[in-house]
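ok so for the tutorial part 2 we go from a plain amino acid sequence to predicted structure tokens. step 1 is just haveing the sequence, like this:
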Amino acid sequence: MIGKLLRSTGAIVAALVLALAGVIAVEGFSAVVHPFPPGVDATDLEACIAHVARYPHWVLGVVVGLWGGIVLGSVWLATRLGTGRHPAHGVAIGVLLCMAVAFNCWMLPYPLWFELALLLTLPVCVVLGSLWGTGGPSDPHPHKPQQLTPLDGASG
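step 2 — the prediction. this is what the tokens look like for a chain of 156 residues:
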């Protein structure tokens, strides 16, 4: 029982670490392709709002794909590492990340197309990540580990 709890907790923590690393990488990408103007305080909320309002559309398009990849990878990892490869681990991470993105979109003035693209992309990434993490629909027992058997007739 304790082992399963520790494994589930480890899966969630590993997925959150992966998500955080991905978000930091996306922020780094953003800082390179659309940096703050010189002398602007990047910690000021009003300055951030004005900065986001001027994002080039191509940058936002790339960010949709990057955020989708972060969600997909984090959900896959949580499902894959979780106890019995149960999709609940990945879905929990996916819901948490989707809520974080929704809050980000609510706080900052992104264009409607960007928000709609995220609304369509991220849930699909949650479903695919949890599905692929369990072993896929072709696996008759996705929550049971495979039994390895020795090769018949093999000689040493």
